[in-house]
Amino acid sequence: MRPYLVQIRTTLRLMLRDRSVLFFSYLFPLSFFFIFAQTFDAGKSPAAMAQVIAMVVMIGVLGNGFFGAGMRTVLDRETNVLRRFKVAPINAAPIITSSIVSGLAAFLPTVFLFLFFGSVMYHAPLPRDLISFLVFVCIGVIAFRSFGMIIAAVVNSQQEAQILIQLLYLPMLFLSGATFPISIMPVWVQNIAQFLPATYLFQGMQSIMIGGESIGANWFAVFALLITFAVAMFVGIKLFRWEKEEKISNRAKLWIVAVLAPFFIMGIYQAKTQQNNERARVLTRNAIRNRATLFNNARIFVGDGRMIQNGAVLVRNGKIAEVFQTPPADPKSLNADIVESSGKTIIPGLIDMHVHLGAPGGVYEDEKRYMDPYAGDKRLASYLYSGITAVRSTGDFLDSSLKLRNDINSGKYLGAQLFACGPLFTAEGGHPTELIKNFPQSMQKEAYEQFVRLPKSPDEARKQVDDLKIAGVDCVKAVLESGNAAWGLFNHLDPAIYSAVISEAAKDNLPSATHTGNASDVKEAADAGSNSIEHGSAIDRIAESTFAEMKAKNLAYDPTLSVFEGMADLAAGNTELLDRSLLQQAAPADLISSTRAFVQKQKKNPNPVFAPMLEHARQNLLAAYKAGLMLITGSDAGNMLVIHGPTVQHEMELWVKAGIPAAIALEAATYNAAQVLRAADRIGSIQKGRDATLVVLDGDPLQDIANTERISQVMFRGERIDRSELFEQEHP
């Protein structure tokens, strides 16, 4: 042990006397630190500061390893410095160990300086798990120092060392994410990056600093770096040469391949699974969402009915940091990107409380389009493009809904937030089992498992609700529908089973929604205490006493006027709904054109049954409003002529035409909807501490509800969305 300690002490003493070492260890990396910090406006985002720190640490680790260890050892050999150690005598192990330890000791103070200046000058918080970050950096330093030592062992001259180091250093510098975010590179370049050890070191630092992870969450990268260290140490000691006259064969250079072997294996795995590429996209997205933005001089619809005529909204770290009743006197002092918003209105992100992502809302000419595995992703992107930042799925396949929800929540994919309400509890032969009969034979078994629940007793119903709670659904939905002459008759769910579903959902602290067909169904749902009643009745008038009961129990009413209008327009062959500008921007062009052609054919055989249904639905909505009910907006998108996109905007237009004030409609689409979703602490209003999920409109929606389609900007969880790129995303 004594030779090791003596050698380490001697090496450190020599390093401290070498001004070039001090310059390249401290002043040089700090200059990069300040340049990058200013370039990326790091003071406006803790995540940007974390990105800067990870970048400069990565550059430092690569330089410390390849040049500080590898090139320095080659120079010592060529200047006969190592020959003096050979006659000491001393073996190779203390030499290599002292180089690694001294390099680590010299580099760590720089890391502390980065963290110090980032905190003091740019107000960036320290990593949540500082110990994990420091340990991970130390592992990276010793791995790359040992890497540098094996380079020194297998080259025969300084010129060879320069060539080999550059062949390794430059790709690792530019492809690891240390200089350019890896997520913006082409996929094939991202795949190449997965074979480089620097990629895992950089992503690990980002995960700890931005993602708040521990070193344990990056165990695979830690394991690979430690393997690299162990192999490089072993080979470096075996091949160590003291004098420049000692030559080594070209085949010995293949030992570098052995050192990189763990990363070849990891690269093949990552290129196949794309896990690291997804992780890089998530980290980049989190960094963007943490940036500070001030929307200044804007009209602000808070969500709960209040309107601030001229104020400002400060967004920081993905949250609403402050809502100003008047614009701040010195906006630049807030250290945020300033978005001047005069003449514009900021509203909370809109919410559609009733959608079916599994259906397109129209018809495709090409049948293969119905089987698109990424259709749900694209439809959520269409909603976000349209300023609808959250949707509640009220009847889709369970597993696909939960996966979609996870992809959005994790940041793997950018689209409207999804709340999964279902599968649908119904009777054998009840709605919507008639739809399953039209599915391909190969899908029908899966549809019964994923789309509906058909309990035969109250006990079975309660068990199924409990299972859905465990599966992680956001809501439970039941169907009370007997049908009519317009679309057929259905078996009605047994009252005892229905009551068991609603009561068990309440016991499990799950919201419940009920599909109703007529006033009697609404009464039954109100008696059971269903949290929201979907559709109400388009057949008959709902009794005032039923509305009074709903108000007393604080139950929400979702009239879904859009679906009844779609039925009436389909029957009349009317395609005006397809002419809306925002819909044409958000929806697939081939879906709109083929749906238009299909609907126009209906003129030959119009069905007059549906027109009166829309009027009944309007009258019941107006009565519900006058009764003081909590109203929420749902479109029933996925049904004919209710195409995924700006569905809520049109639903609100129908409300206003029915006599509902614009402020009430907008409150239903934001604040009330969030209350029913039990997410009001995060979305649905523009208040301090809520998610920075909002929409900037051109004009005042209270003066003209159609202004909700005139979208200037969409912000989702602090990220200013580039709407034009939503449909070009990689699918998870």
Radius of gyration of CA atoms, rounded to a whole number = 32 Å
What is the CATH class designation of the largest domain? Alpha Beta
Largest sheet: 9 strands, parallel
CATH topology group of the largest domain? TIM Barrel
Number of helices: 26
* Tertiary shape: elongated
CATH superfamily of the largest domain: Metal-dependent hydrolases
Number of domains: 3
**Poorly predicted residue ranges:** none
Under the CATH scheme, which architecture of the largest domain would be assigned? Answer: Alpha-Beta Barrel
Strand content range: 5-15%
Give the % helix. 40-55%
Overall mean confidence score, pLDDT: 89
- The computed structural class is alpha/beta
Q: Give the strand tally.
A: 19
Distance between the ends:
52 Å
Protein described:
There is one protein chain. The protein has 732 residues and is of the alpha/beta class. The chain folds into three domains: 2-289, no CATH class; 292-348 and 685-723, Roll (Urease, subunit C, domain 1); 350-683, Alpha-Beta Barrel (TIM Barrel), CATH 3.20.20. Strands 6, 7, 8, 9, 10, 13, 14, 15 and 16 form a nine-stranded parallel beta sheet that branches. α1 (2-17) crosses α5 and α6 (130-154) packs antiparallel against α9 (197-209). It is elongated, with a radius of gyration of 32 Å. The mean pLDDT is 89.
